Amino acid sequence: REAYHTEAEHVYVITLSSHLSGSYNSAVLGMNLYREKYGKKQIHVIDSESASCGETQIVKKLVELEEQRLSFEEIVKQIEEFRSNVHTYFVLDNLETLRKNGRLTGVKALVASTLNIKPIMAGDKGSIVQRGQSVGMKKALRRMAEIVLEEAGDTKERFLMITHCNAPDRAETMKKLLMEKAEFKGCLIMDTRGVSSMYANDGGVIVTV
Q: What mean pLDDT value characterizes the chain?
């Protein structure tokens, strides 16, 4: 509630996918409590339906929209549409955290860990779905790049973001694989942070376009 207590006229909150975390519900509750105590304010809580660089994509777009001096209502409309068109993909070395938290419905976590099969996963309206699989991380990264290019469509107006958990070489490999085959508005590589690091575990790579 108190985090909303700011001089900013427009307040935005971008949370981890509501399918992975309770942060979206907490943010909405905080907004409602703020309005009860302090009155109405232009606040919008956005379920990223993603994580890590998926949230960063939304932040970057919000800054662009605010710099255009659009109305709050128009920004809300455009950012919700933008969010729905962000594609999220990832490959993890270790699926245990996701498995223990019940976030891997439909993904063969145990088979993956015992046979070194790496599922290539994606976000589908915030839920995790499997797009493919490969034996070993190198092949998995190549396959993920192929899937990204197959599904992202025209990438010239899309910004490529890659986050990694202690795996900068893998992130650079993904960047190379994608930028050799497609043109993007730009590319940003970052470390994971917070709960996204916990889910990704050492070696995880996340791609959003």
A: 91
pTM score, whole prediction: 0.89
* Strands 186-191 and 159-164, sheet pairing: parallel
The residue range of the domain holding 72 is 2-84
Q: Are residues 115 and 182 in the same domain?
A: yes
Q: Poorest-confidence range of 20-24, 39-43, 111-115?
A: 111-115
**Is the distance from CB of 168 to CB of 196 less than 8 angstroms?**
no
Where does a domain end: 46, 62, 84? Answer: 84
2-31 confidence digits (pLDDT tens) = 999 999 999 999 999 998 889 999 999 999
Q: Say whether pLDDT at 112 is over 60.
A: no
CB proximity list for 138: less than 8 A, separation 6 or greater: 173
| Count of CA atoms in the C-beta half-sphere (13 A) of 190 | 19
Q: Torsion over CA of 188, 101, 128 and 74, rounded to 10 degrees? A: -60
Which of 84, 103, 133 represents a domain boundary (last residue)? 84
